[in-house]
């Protein structure tokens, strides 16, 4: 609600602090998804001050604000230097980078019924881009031992309407790198995008720190574009990503221009038109504040923490790490332990582990993103995981009311209003209504895990609608 008269700044900030009271902490490493922490407050301070300095600068017209051009050239140039060259665009995040890569490939090909071929482990941003841009998705299964897609399966899935092939470096769910060189050898001139949103600004430093990282960037024959998020392992504030194209002509296909109106000239490099240069300033400052030595030190710490975490989880009875993660993403499943219950137990102890539903033969599991700050708290994390695993084994799996899954699967969700859906959720112990507090998520995740994918998606939309309300 908007007040009748303006409020004092101190009053506003006090309310912001109150509103954030139940948020997960963004510093300290106890939240193992969504946030990336260097553990260096001076870097965060530099990024924050640069972000605020550029906050009101509008990226819409680079001729009006040449600082945008100069900063973007430096940031994109740094990414290109690390990832095999190319011609780039600074975007708001991995989803927008992926959207532009798909748009460029679609417009370049000019197919009537375009499709893109991707592994089942590829990020849903590709499905989102395909949905918005009218492109069919052809999903390819992965090896259920390595969780990598096989080049021969990608080749078989391609046809004359394929406008783009996708692989990950690494894939988010299990942190493994798809065989980029092998796929590049079979794409036969079709554009090939490497989703390195997670790994683009991490894998080169891990390689320099001694990890065996295979070639994955624009230097690999066949790779035509790559995405790299700087607000992940670049540790920049949210809203910072880069998409690189090997060919400047393909980058131009990502642009949008319109002269079909009598107003100002419209030419956009990104999906957004007006957008704050704050994220660009924050990313620029973060890269400058850390430098090569800083990122290499963070890479070494991340590598060490990941190794300790993998070994520690494997030693906990009833838990097993999935695949051989090459980066600092670790996923583990349970044998005789409900991982969704384990996640609730860990959250009750102050730690957030990210649940992942079963899909395409891959079991339900929990995901951990290891960042620069993790090493200092890895023993505490392993202690909590072990305690939570024991508690989850004692509690047993989440108990679902009889017939609940069948009931939800058979509902006509479009016929229910949000209030009715909220009442239904509350009746099974998942109260999403305002003031009800944070529900345990094991039951929610167990129901979702048991539903067909299309029904999962419909239920998730209703959850979001109820949470936000009017």
TrEMBL record:
Source organism, top-level taxon: Bacteria
User: Where in the sequence is the signal peptide annotated?
Assistant: none
Please report which protein family the annotation says this sequence is part of.
Answer: Belongs to the group II decarboxylase family. Sphingosine-1-phosphate lyase subfamily.
A Pfam family annotated for this chain is: Pyridoxal_deC
What keywords appear on the UniProt entry? Lyase, Pyridoxal phosphate
Q: List, alphabetically, the InterPro entries matched.
A: GrpII_AminoAcid_Decarb, PyrdxlP-dep_de-COase, PyrdxlP-dep_Trfase, PyrdxlP-dep_Trfase_major, PyrdxlP-dep_Trfase_small
The UniProt transmembrane annotation reads: none
Q: Which organism is it from?
A: Nonomuraea insulae
Q: What is this protein called?
A: Pyridoxal phosphate-dependent decarboxylase family protein
Q: Which cofactor does it need?
A: pyridoxal 5'-phosphate
Q: Which PANTHER family match?
A: PTHR42735, SPHINGOSINE-1-PHOSPHATE LYASE 1
């Amino acid at each position: 609600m908007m007040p009748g008269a303006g409020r004092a700044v101190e009053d506003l900030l006090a309310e912001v602090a109150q509103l954030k009271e139940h948020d997960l902490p963004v510093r300290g490493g106890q939240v193992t998804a969504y946030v990336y922490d260097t553990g260096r407050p001076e870097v965060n301070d530099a990024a924050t001050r640069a972000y605020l300095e550029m906050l009101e600068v509008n990226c819409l017209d680079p001729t009006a604000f040449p600082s945008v051009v100069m900063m973007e050239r430096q940031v994109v140039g740094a990414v290109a230097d690390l990832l095999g060259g190319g011609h780039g665009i600074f975007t708001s995040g991995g989803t927008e980078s992926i959207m532009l890569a798909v748009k460029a490939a679609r417009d370049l090909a000019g197919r009537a019924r375009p499709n893109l071929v991707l592994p089942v482990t590829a990020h849903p941003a590709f499905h989102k881009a395909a949905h918005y841009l009218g492109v069919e998705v052809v999903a390819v299964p992965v090896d259920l031992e390595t969780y990598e897609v096989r080049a021969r399966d990608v080749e078989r899935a391609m046809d004359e309407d394929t406008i783009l092939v996708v692989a990950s470096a690494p894939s988010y769910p299990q942190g493994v790198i798809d065989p980029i060189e092998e796929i590049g050898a079979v794409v036969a001139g079709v554009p090939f995008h490497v989703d390195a949103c997670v790994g683009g600004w991490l894998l080169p430093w891990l390689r320099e720190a001694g990890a065996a990282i295979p070639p994955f960037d624009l230097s690999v024959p066949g790779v035509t574009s790559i995405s790299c998020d700087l607000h992940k392992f670049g540790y920049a504030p949210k809203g910072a990503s880069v998409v690189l194209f090997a060919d400047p002509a393909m980058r131009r296909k990502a642009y949008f221009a319109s002269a079909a109106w009598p107003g100002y000239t419209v030419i956009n490099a990104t999906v957004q038109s007006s957008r704050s240069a704050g994220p660009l300033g924050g990313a620029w400052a973060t890269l400058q504040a850390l430098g090569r030595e800083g990122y290499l030190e963070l890479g070494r710490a991340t590598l060490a923490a990941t190794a300790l975490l993998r070994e520690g989880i494997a030693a906990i009875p009833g838990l097993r790490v999935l695949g051989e993660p090459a980066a600092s993403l670790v996923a583990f499943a349970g044998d005789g332990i409900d991982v969704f219950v384990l996640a609730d137990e860990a959250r009750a102890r102050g730690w957030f582990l990210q649940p992942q539903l079963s899909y395409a033969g891959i079991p339900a599991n929990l995901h951990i993103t290891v960042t620069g700050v993790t090493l200092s708290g890895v023993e505490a994390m392993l202690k909590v995981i072990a305690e939570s695993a024991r508690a989850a084994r004692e509690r047993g799996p989440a108990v679902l009311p009889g017939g609940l899954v069948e009931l939800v699967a058979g509902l006509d969700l479009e016929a229910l209003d949000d209030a009715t859906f909220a009442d239904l959720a509350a009746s099974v112990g998942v109260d999403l209504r305002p003031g009800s507090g944070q529900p345990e998520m094991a039951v929610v995740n167990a129901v979702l895990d048991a539903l067909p994918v299309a029904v999962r998606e419909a239920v998730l939309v209703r959850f979001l609608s109820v949470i936000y309300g009017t």
